[in-house]
Amino acid sequence: MNSDILLLGQTLSFAADPFQQGPEAAQIHARGAVLIRDGLIMETGPADDLRAAYPQAVVTDHGDALIMAGFIDAHVHYPQTAMIASWGKRLIDWLNHYTFPEEQQFADPAYAAEIAGRYLDLTLANGTTSVVSFCTIHPASVEAFFGAAQQRGQRVVAGKTCMDRDTAPDFLRDTAQSAYDDSKALLEKWHGTDRLSYAITPRFSPTSTPDQLAALGALWAEHPDCLMQTHLSEQVDEIAWVKSLYPEARDYLDTYEEHGLLRPGGMYGHAIHLEDREKDRLLEVDAALVHCPTSNTFIGSGLFDMGGLMADGHRIGLATDTGGGSSFSMLRTMAAAYEIGQLRHRPLHPSELLWLATTGSARAIRMEDKIGNLAPGMEADIVVLDLASTPAIAQRSARAEDLWEAVFPTIMMGDDRAISAVYLAGQRTHLPPKSITQ
Length: 438
Ligand code: GUN
Ligand code: ZN
What we know:
Layout: E1 5-14, H1 18-21, E2 26-37, E3 40-46, H2 47-53, E4 58-69, E5 71-77, H3 91-104, H4 109-125, E6 128-134, H5 139-152, E7 156-159, E8 161-162, H6 176-190, E9 196-202, H7 210-222, E10 227-232, H8 236-245, H9 252-257, E11 266-270, H10 276-285, E12 288-291, H11 293-298, H12 306-312, E13 315-318, H13 330-343, H14 350-364, E14 382-385, H15 391-397, H16 403-413, E15 419-424, E16 427-428
The chain binds guanine and zinc ion (ZN).
C-alpha cells in the first residue's frame, strides 16, 4: 500500500448546492486537512483531528492556501488551442475563417499530439483537472487527446466531432456511415479505459445531415452509458440557419430530439436563446446545459440566464469553450459568469461560482460520484489556490472578513499564478515555474 497523504490548508467542500441552500452549503475548515489513500479522498476535517488520527501520513502543509476540488471544464475544443483570441468574427464566420482551417491540421497525428499535450499542460497550470473536449473529424485527433490525458493520469471525456453536411468545408467532412463507424471504434477502444470516457459528438445540427444525426442517435442508443455533446442556440443567426435547414423541426432542440439525441447524458453547449418548449424538454429529460461565459461575450452570442435556469432546476456546467472563448482559466471563466450575472441582475455568489466550476460541472457530465468535491470516496483531483498571488489580489484579500471575501479577488483577478499545486488522483503534478513578476 502507498503511504497515506495528508494535505493541510484551508479546505472547501460542498455538502449541498449553494444555488438552493445558499453559501451555507459549503463546509470550510480554516485550518483543515484532506487525507488521501490510493488516489481517493478518505476523509476531510480539522487539521488537528486528522493529524492525530493518521500519525503515519506524509504531510504537505499548504499554509493559508485554499484546498478544493480541481476545476472541471465541461465544454472545450482542444484543437482550437493555437487559434484562441482570433479577432473580429461572430460564430459562423469565425468557424469558417479561423476554426475550420485550424482543425484541418489535425489530420496529422503529430500535430494533434503536440496540441493535445500543450492544451492539457496549459489547463493543468490553470488548475483544471478534468475537461470534456470536442476533437476534430479525424480519429487521430481523438487518439492523440486520450493518449495525452492517459499519460497525465487525467479523467477526461472526448469524442470525434462529426460533420457530413455540405455546410462544412469538404476537407472536414465525414459521412453518416463513417461517423458511426469511427465513433463506434473509438468508443469501444477508449470508453472506460483508465480514467477516459467517450462522448458521441455531432458538432451541431447545421453541419450534420438528418441521416448523420440519426446514425449517431442510434449509436448512443446502443451505448447509453456514453455521454453526448453538441451545441444549442448559441447565436440568433445560427438558430435561423437551423430553421432553414430543418424546416420540419419545432425548434433547434427538436433537430436533436427527432434523431435520438436528447436523453439524460446529453450536454448542450451555450443554450442561450432557448424557447419555452426547449427549456421544458431539457428539464423533463434532465439533460445538461453548459454555460460558456467568456465565449458568449467574445464572439458576441448573448447572456445566458443562469439565475432563471437554475431556479427552474436545470443541470448546468461551466466551461471555457477554448477558441470561442478567451481564456484557458476557469478562474477567468467564473469571473465572466459573474459579469454576465451582473448584466442580468443576478450576481452569482463566490460559493455558486466555485460550485459551478467543480460539482456543477461534475453533475453536468454525470460524474459527481467521482469528481468535483472534497468528500470521502471521491477521486483526489485537487487544486490548491494561493489567495494572495499578486500584490493587487493580496491587498484586497488582506482585509477580507470571511472566506468568500478572501476568495472573490482571486476569482475576479486571478490567473495561473494563483495555482499553488494540482493533484491528480492524489499525485502532485509538475507545474511550470511562476512568472517572475509575481
Ligand atoms: N458551434 C459549432 N461549432 C462551434 C465551435 O467550435 N465553437 C463554438 N463556440 N460554437 C460552435
Ligand atoms: Zn463549443
